[in-house]
Automatic annotation (TrEMBL):
It comes from Limnospira indica PCC 8005. Belongs to the phosphohexose mutase family. This is Bifunctional Mannose-1-phosphate guanylyltransferase / Phosphoglucosamine mutase. Residues 1-208 form the Nucleotidyl transferase domain. It comes from the Bacteria. Residues 227-325 form the EIF2B subunit epsilon/gamma LbH domain. SUPFAM superfamilies: Nucleotide-diphospho-sugar transferases, Phosphoglucomutase, C-terminal domain, Phosphoglucomutase, first 3 domains, Trimeric LpxA-like enzymes. The keyword Isomerase applies. GO terms for molecular function: intramolecular phosphotransferase activity; mannose-1-phosphate guanylyltransferase (GTP) activity; structural constituent of carboxysome shell.
Amino acid sequence: MVPILNRPIAEHIINLLRRHHFQEVIATLHYLPDIMREYFHNGSDFGVQITYSVEEDQPLGTAGCVKNIAELLDSTFLVISGDSITDFDLSAAVKFHTSQQSKATLILTRVPNPLDFGVVITDENQRIKRFLEKPSTSEIFSDTVNTGIYVLEPEVLEYLPPNQECDFSNDLFPLLLEKGVPMYGFIAEGYWCDVGHLEAYRESQYDALRGKVKLDFHVRERSPGVWVGENTYIDDYARIEAPVIIGNNCRIAARAHIEAGTILGDNVTIGSDANLKRPIVWNGAIIGEDVHLRACVIARGARVDRRAHVLEGSVVGSLSTVGEESLISPNVRVWPSKKIESGATLNINLIWGNTARRNLFGQRGVLGLANIDITPEFAVKLGAAYGSTLKQVATVAVSRDQRRISRMVTRSLISGLMSVGVNVLNLEDTAIPVVRTVIRKLTVVGGIHVRLSPDRSDQILIEFLDNKGINITKAKEKKIEGAYFKEDLRRAGVAEIGNMTYPSEVIDTYRTAFERHLNIDGLRHSNAKVVIDYVYAVSGALLPRLLAKFGCDAVVLNASLNQIAISPSDRENLLDQLGRVVEALRANFGVQVYANGEQFILVDESGSLIRGEELTALMVTMVLTAHPRSTVVVPVQASSAVEQIARRHDGIVIRTKANPTALMEACQAHPNVVLGGSGDMGFIFPQMHPGFDAMFSIAKMIEILTTQERSLGQIRTDLPHVIHRRYTVRCPWSVKGALMRHLVETHAPENLELIDGVKLINYQDDNWILILPDAGEPLIHIYANSDDRDWADATLREYRNMVQDFVNQVQGMNREDY
């Protein structure tokens, strides 16, 4: 019901339906249903007949609400969401649906950045082959997306359960695809905007003013590009620049400057000398003398007093007052019915620097610059947002690494959690493998772990875990983001504030699990000597104590704590040092542990490094030798050496998306998995716990080397020889989806694998090329894999040039359009 061109979005939708001869409209409502009913009544004033269906107890989801009115749907019908602005040709979509004898037709469009939408791939006849709801950045395989507009036959609703929350994209459409029900995609021409956030809300208004979308203005065009309603007075000395729209009964005083892109609702008063640059002003607002408004939203009945400034991206809620000479900084939101004192500066630091991001979560959690992006005030709000998605009196485990910045952020998160009535078990400074192990033993709904980023020493990584110790799903991340950005935060009463306790025996719980999943007798007779480098970050220093208990000699290097992580070059120097120490002490091997106890790099008995793909192959060889006919899980980009090793041991390889959560989930979901992960991410032993664990990996290596009576150097000589190359190309976010679609459309389907990115496979051998969008940066990673060095080099060069040419071509077209 928010206004676009001074009319509710729903009214524009009804106008579109009427233009395409839809006469009967059923509105399914849940939140504040009376607002819509009181505005539209029975629909006769708008040229349609409207029936209302209100979900009283709980929302039933996009599909559940339609199933709820199934008895009213006896022929082909159209579903359209209530929060989109579009001028699609719905008649053409219905005609296409009928001609294809489709049971479900999804109206699709192409967008530069498909992250927030369901991505769809169709065949040459437009029959739907695959779709993915709201992918992460690395999962994008097309820029063709689901608009939430569907043409359906009544019988498809029979696949849905009654009186149950369900969704078209997540529940119905995958089921129809699985059962082979005819389902097509109609790629519509025209304008479409999902008005799901403030930036889209403003842009859709400006697009409508510029004529990019066909909407009814409801007021007359007084001069080219200047639409003015009835009974509106504009002083002769006011300046109006096209395009603008001014509603009914407005008053614009002398010397007011209304610049292009401004939208004024009905009954708006603009004082003398006011300067308005592209604001959206709702009905009944009062703008005082010499006020400056900049690309902001002033809601219904709000008042902005003399000489106040409201800057870009800000929102002043309904019936609020902004006092004289006060300043509202960019992207600040003022809740309804609030008063800002005269001369005050209302200022909130943006979470992500100078640009407002809609996505808090990256590849594996919330990541940002320490004490710049991830500040105490940000952490308090994030903790409250997470807690608001949980039931009151729920309990969450919170842990961190040992650095001061992590302690500060953790305390702020705890404050936010407690403020919404959530209880906290504070595990304090604990290695994350320990947290993942013990979290399942605690009566908690989830956990939060705070640490310095494994990849950048100036960044903080905040990871959210479920009650099994696995990173939370994308759906749960979206809920937290929604609560954070909408500020939909619960406030507990004084008596309901959460409690914080410190659980005991955390380390004992991990030690017990550690011992239970090792061959203790094998370890006791190993007499192994291992050199462990902790790189001045000691959260994982529990390992020497565990190994000593089994008679293993652990020599520890660099175990003191630095508050600032060392640089990559310094870490490489420490690896050289580690190699020399291993050789001098004649140790079995050395290991550098980092990433808060999750990841490691090996040094064999001769001092040579083992890392990356070679480390992956070595770990798979060791574990499958010990457990033949078992399953290993690796990311999609891992070398094909893994399959060659698995064939030697009658093993099975499962490949997953290139993100840690996907690996953790797959290790838990599939039976008989003995190892998961890669040299770049770390390794998972799912019987131990669901996460990466350098400590247990090291102990397991000692056990296997002892029982197999081999050295790392001997195992290395038996590894398959595979050429595995990687190259990274810059690619703007707006081009990624189009690039992935181009790759899918220009290669034979039988050679495609779309686990993550686009993988082109020659099934006669182990040759493949993978084009994988980066999850957090405007980059594309290209991997080439082969037994043939020349093929790998030539193919990598070919696809590198192809990607660069495609990016240049699309950017050139965009510049021409501009």
